[in-house]
Amino acid sequence: MQNAIKVAVDAMGGDHAPGEIVKGAQAAVKIRKDIHVFLVGKKDAIEKELSKYSYPKDQISIVHAEETIEMAEPPVLAIRKKKQSSIVLGMNMVKQKEADAFVSAGSSGAILVGGQVIVGRIKGIERPPLAPLIPTKKGVSLLVDCGANVDARPSHLVQFAKMGSVYMEHVVGISNPKVAIVNIGAEEEKGNALVKETFPLLKECQDINFTGSIEAREIPYGKADVIVCEAFTGNVILKLYEGLSSTLLGVVKKGLMSSLRSKMGAVLIKPALKETLKSFDASVYGGAPLLGLNGLVVKIHGSSKATEAKNAIIQCVTFKEQKINEKIKENIISASKEEEQEGKNGV
Amino acid sequence: MQNAIKVAVDAMGGDHAPGEIVKGAQAAVKIRKDIHVFLVGKKDAIEKELSKYSYPKDQISIVHAEETIEMAEPPVLAIRKKKQSSIVLGMNMVKQKEADAFVSAGSSGAILVGGQVIVGRIKGIERPPLAPLIPTKKGVSLLVDCGANVDARPSHLVQFAKMGSVYMEHVVGISNPKVAIVNIGAEEEKGNALVKETFPLLKECQDINFTGSIEAREIPYGKADVIVCEAFTGNVILKLYEGLSSTLLGVVKKGLMSSLRSKMGAVLIKPALKETLKSFDASVYGGAPLLGLNGLVVKIHGSSKATEAKNAIIQCVTFKEQKINEKIKENIISASKEEEQEGKNGV
User: What is the reported pTM?
Assistant: First the structure.
């Protein structure tokens, strides 16, 4: 297919690579005719996994990568030294426009560093944030930034808010998404130095629907669509989401197994409970894009299985079709003008 | 009783005051002969509530307070102007040693400010942190700091770690409590500037059992007993705990009500589930002390009911009996010596 979206996939990254990643890739091309997947990694290992499935052969190619970047390797060094690794080769494909997107469950650090130094930032973007979707009572919210830039500055957070708005509006399909900044109280005078400085800048933005502060308590209720914070806070929120959900469900399960009566009840409630808990399962929402790069880089969880890989690959289509990067560029150009104006107003 | 612990209680603070607070106070003195409660607030309102119960009259006194500090009032101004408010009067009782402790469900800001300016810090303590116990799979952990000091410095965090250790060891009864710093990865080189500066200082501390970084994911598993962070992060953790627990349980309940079959199951599992979820209910652990003050100030949640008030009042006994403040003083003296040593070593 001439106009297929070309997605390079790191076949070697993550706890369940290459098996689950390859499985997800073949599942994705079965669903979408308009995707071509390049599986980047050890040729033999990938071929062995692919041989287990029947799938449209013309939609998957293998790009051999001799090396693999391990989880524990120092990211900057790994990206510099391992030129033949699946991450470096996959990122280079995006840089050279041989691929529209790169999806990896590998080392977060290496993906963040590679995204910046190989794929490169869109001109005007100060820092590319990692922006996962998190489940809420109402649907999903975009948490931006979530691991790429600790100790960010107010101007970074303003860009995060704008890029996040574009993403939620055009990829997730929420019109006029509500943007809020993570804070420790609802009042404008609350917060740490970063939040206090950023708040008035967000208020001035004409091109986003800024609704003020959001307390962490309100995040799971879905009070905002785009949740802005610096990466340390974002990482704490994302990880606590994971840890607390699994702990609480563990506590519930333990309760269900504690007596004969409750065991009988558990059998009755199982199908209904499974269905509703699915809505709170982060894996169905695909991966987290690194926003603001000259190409799409999507990070999926290290523990990702075939479903996550498949969803992340399919998500790349919307990103490309909706021309998100073009929209971010437009947005940044208008933002710079606005900031000049703000400068004149003494803000 | 001559040696009773004297606890001043803010009868006017919180969403359910004075009714639930008074109910909690009379419940506390029924359980413990060695507590005397001073209910601070509007005399008429308190008397009316007290008249509903039969309790040992000699264990409760009323201290009339003409004013009340509202939740939305700017804290510094409120503490300065409302000299006849329940918070200011209660704190003054602690300062004047007329009470050993003050418990309030009122404005967090006013309690934090009042604690510092009225009760005052122990000499050598730079900032008094708010330290709630949070439920985990294994029991409870102390989250310190959780709302008192945003933009803290490394030396503050070191003191938080030490005071938290004393509290967990002597009030909660965990010997040699594990101390960890909230971080975005397990490796020592990870983190924001604050964490990177604080990490080596904690490693140098001889008097605590520092175990390194803790990712937010691991907090609900109970990986550490004392969880150290600055207040912005702590507030995010505490509030997300609240929000996510209630959202997830809401999702589970909704699932249970979705079909006739699951409704029948729900009836069977209810008692067992209720019992296990109790272990994850923060209200049973009493309030959050402001550590490092010249007296005990305990903040309980604004939505606290009688159980929380009762538990927080009873918790004051252990604090006093274990001479926590004396132990913090000892700890700080040895800490200062150690820091001098660290200075010499160029750390």
Answer: 0.88
